[in-house]
């Protein structure tokens, strides 16, 4: 068992009371999960302050406490450690507890509003194809080589991150690709990790419910780059005007990718069809199975990371062209001439990109029918914007439920409807039940039409009032397309 003082190595301490040699069985930040011999870390959360639960943690057998504010009454025999920032301490303690696995692996984090899952999945698939043992932490799933570990967050809590990376190292992984959500960065879930590099995909409207303002949201992303070590790389999208902001004061090697502005990793789109993309990268013409300009960015970011990690350019491009990408991202199902696309676009920017991509690849007068909703308990400001984009860029739109969570689905739909221009009322339907909405799209479609089902991608549930009911857009689409036969 490790001693508390070793687990606190590199943590900024304010004061300590009691025996620092006390053994630590587990690090716990939720009092309900305390086991005998744990150290309880009291974290100020978004809902409650973990300091309230110190007493409960001690009753359940915690032998030491790490906190920002010491309790008024101290318990005999307990070690109390006061720190400046408990969330940060938690990350560093988790790293020490698991013996700093991120120092033994090439760890690359990807941040940005859209494209994180797509980029880390492509990286994971590419490095697997190139014969490496690889780990991945993503919204869809976590992986240690071919072993799948279900994912609960885009970026898990620090204990889960460190324990997963420990397992990766123990299983011989040389690389790990992970998503860094803005929530995770602000909440210090990334603390204690040693990164070989970080990637910035783009930034647009999302999560303002959490960050308050767009500036705060940008700052959250920038924090990842501010904290990069000297021997790492910072690879940013040169075509996103915040790309350069990420690089200000960043100690990592500055690297850029893009299609428009001068960049270290640059490409030209030669063709963009419903079957794939042809890009010119360094005077080599390569065909990829991914669709849409946004995927050109993801592919370039992946190419850049691989080259910066020392891989051979030609080999990377050869292997990348075979790869199929992440689940639920532009997933295409075609039956009887009708194409349905299931996509995780759940932000205005992503929805606009996907619809413009579909417009760009359709060959003639086919209709675009879009089924879309917005999640409950999440950023409300995006609701009217997404409805507006959907109606402006489609021939027919069915507004429906996403994950209503604790909100009234019809109230969410009203907020979406408020964004629809009067001229577009005629093409807009509101159907609360998502299955019915998807099936109605099938009824409205004729041969050649393209149906976009946006917002839930890979998700296999629909969350309503705390219950996750089984629901998979891809399965419902298959039912719908069969029904059309
Ligand atoms: C809003 C948010 O981000 N919350 C995350 C946060 O919880 P919190 O600190 O706010 O929790 P809290 O309920 O206020 O509790 C504060 C502290 O008291 C402790 N506690 C609480 C109750 C008790 O009885 N005893 C006790 O000790 C809690 O364990 C916690 O340490 O820290 C937890 C541990 O890391 C996360 O699990 C939790 O994610 C919640 C479930 C969540 O839904 N998060 C979403 C918004 C999220 O993180 N999403 C991003 C992706 C977003 C995107 O890009 O799309 C992600 O990375 O997944
Ligand atoms: N580089 C990109 N730029 C803009 N849109 C993108 C990009 N890559 C993917 N998208 C669109 O955004 C959607 C979400 O992509 P992805 O899941 O890769 O993003 P993410 O950043 O992981 O999202 P989340 O924060 O929810 O985990 C995709 O379904 C696609 O529609
Ligand atoms: N990681 C994002 C995903 C949103 C996906 C969408 N289907 C929704 O439920 O709003 C979140 O939790 O905000
Ligand atoms: Mg993701």
TrEMBL record:
Binding site residues for UDP-N-acetyl-alpha-D-muramoyl-L-alanyl-D-glutamate: 31, 154-155, 181, 187, 189
Post-translational changes noted in the entry: Carboxylation is probably crucial for Mg(2+) binding and, consequently, for the gamma-phosphate positioning of ATP.
InterPro entries, sorted: Mur-like_cat_sf, Mur_ligase_C, Mur_ligase_C_dom_sf, Mur_ligase_cen, Mur_ligase_N, MurE/MurF_N, UDP-N-AcMur-Glu-dNH2Pim_ligase
Pathway linked to the protein: Cell wall biogenesis; peptidoglycan biosynthesis
Positions of the Mur ligase C-terminal domain: 328-457
Span of domain Mur ligase central: 110-306
Chief place of localization: cytoplasm
Alphabetically ordered keywords of this record: ATP-binding, Cell cycle, Cell division, Cell shape, Cell wall biogenesis/degradation, Cytoplasm, Ligase, Magnesium, Nucleotide-binding, Peptidoglycan synthesis
Reactions catalysed according to its record: UDP-N-acetyl-alpha-D-muramoyl-L-alanyl-D-glutamate + meso-2,6-diaminopimelate + ATP = UDP-N-acetyl-alpha-D-muramoyl-L-alanyl-gamma-D-glutamyl-meso-2,6-diaminopimelate + ADP + phosphate + H(+)
Cofactor(s) in the UniProt record: Mg(2+)
Domain Mur ligase N-terminal catalytic residue range list: 25-97
Name the record gives this protein: UDP-N-acetylmuramoyl-L-alanyl-D-glutamate--2,6-diaminopimelate ligase
Top-level taxonomy: Bacteria, Pseudomonadati, Bacteroidota, Cytophagia, Cytophagales
Gene name in the database record: murE
């Amino acid at each position: 068992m490790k001693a508390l003082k070793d687990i606190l190595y590199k943590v900024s301490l304010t004061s300590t009371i009691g025996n620092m040699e006390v053994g630590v069985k587990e690090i716990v930040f939720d009092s309900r999960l305390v086991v005998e011999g744990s150290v309880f870390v009291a974290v100020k959360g978004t809902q409650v302050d973990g300091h309230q639960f110190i007493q409960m943690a001690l009753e359940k057998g915690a032998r030491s406490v790490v906190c920002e504010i010491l309790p008024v009454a101290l318990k005999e025999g307990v070690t109390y450690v006061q720190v400046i920032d408990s969330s940060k301490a938690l990350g560093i303690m988790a790293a020490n507890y698991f013996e700093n696995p991120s120092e033994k692996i090439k760890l690359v984090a990807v941040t940005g509003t859209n494209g994180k899952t797509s980029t880390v999945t492509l990286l994971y698939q590419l490095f697997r194809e190139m014969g490496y043992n690889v780990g991945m932490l993503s919204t869809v799933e976590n992986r240690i080589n071919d072993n799948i570990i279900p994912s609960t967050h885009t970026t898990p809590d620090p204990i889960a991150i460190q324990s997963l990376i420990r397992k990766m190292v123990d299983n011989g992984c040389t690389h790990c690709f992970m998503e860094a959500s803005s929530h995770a960065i602000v909440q210090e879930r990334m603390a204690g990790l040693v990164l070989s590099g970080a990637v910035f995909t783009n930034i647009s409207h999302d999560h303002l419910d959490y960050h308050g303002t767009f500036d705060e949201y940008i700052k959250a992303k920038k924090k990842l780059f501010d904290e990069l070590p000297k021997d790492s790389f910072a690879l940013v999208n040169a075509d996103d005007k915040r790309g350069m902001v990420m690089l200000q004061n960043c100690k990592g090697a500055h690297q850029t990718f893009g299609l428009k502005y001068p960049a270290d990793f640059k490409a030209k789109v030669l063709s963009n069809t419903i079957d794939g993309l042809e890009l010119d990268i360094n005077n080599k013409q390569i065909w990829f199975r991914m669709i849409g300009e946004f995927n050109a960015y993801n592919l370039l970011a992946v190419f850049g990371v691989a080259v910066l990690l020392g891989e051979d350019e030609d080999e990377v491009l050869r292997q990348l062209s075979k790869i199929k990408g992440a689940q639920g991202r532009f997933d295409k199902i075609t039956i009887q001439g009708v194409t349905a696309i299931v996509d995780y676009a759940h932000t205005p920017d992503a929805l606009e990109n996907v619809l413009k991509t579909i417009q760009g690849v359709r060959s003639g007068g086919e209709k675009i029918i879009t089924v879309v909703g917005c999640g409950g308990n999440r950023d409300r400001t995006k609701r009217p914007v997404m409805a507006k984009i959907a109606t402006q860029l489609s021939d027919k739109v069915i507004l429906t439920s996403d994950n209503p969570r604790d909100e009234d689905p019809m109230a969410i739909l009203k907020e979406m409807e408020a964004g629809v221009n009067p001229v577009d009322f005629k093409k807009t339907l509101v159907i609360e039940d998502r299955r019915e909405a998807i099936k109605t799209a099938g009824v409205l479609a004729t041969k050649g039409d393209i149906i976009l089902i946006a917002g839930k991608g890979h998700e296999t549930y629909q969350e309503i009032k705390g219950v996750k009911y089984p629901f998979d857009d891809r399965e419902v689409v298959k039912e719908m397309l069969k029904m059309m036969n």
